[in-house]
Description:
Blueprint: H1 17-35, H2 43-50, H3 54-60, H4 64-85, H5 94-122, H6 127-150, H7 162-183, H8 187-201
Amino acid sequence: MPQPGESKGRRRVAPSKGDLRERAILDAAEHQLATGGLDHMTVETIATAAGITRGAFYFYFGSKNDVLTALVERTVSTLRAEVDAADAAGTSSPAEALEQSVQQTARMWHEHGSVMRAAVDLSPTIPAIAEQWRSAVSAIADITRRIAERAGLPAGAGPTDATAVTAALVWMTERCFYQASRTGGSVDETAATLTHVWRTALDLSR
């Protein structure tokens, strides 16, 4: 018989002990990034914060860099989903969809700025993180390209067509949020500026 809260023929699957332990390690690593910074993070400090032994840590991850790579992967997956959701149904106007995309990105920088800064900083030296970060930026550029085409920007491969324009704007957006987060600037003000730039570039009236 289904238990309370379960639909007939469908069982609720709880996270496994291993899933919970891995999540605890990633959460501990993110907290350390936000409070102590990358230089003070070690396998030992992550394991201690997660409530496990160093030996148990190595059952889940081979190194600190492996933890950071998994943490970046978790964060960028959420970022991509958030931006995609802003235009998932295609029912919002292009202006509304772009504004929501920028706001969702700003929220991610508010909540996970330490991870996203680490992704930018570590990309030159850790190929797996670089791949994760570039794939996220590329996916977001593809999402915004569809919005830009709905706004009337030509679909093509030319330097002034939707693909090139949105790719440039997405990388600009990444850099502006990174600088605001790294220097203690206002992420919200940066979002307002970026929304204006996107609207202007795509000729979207208010």
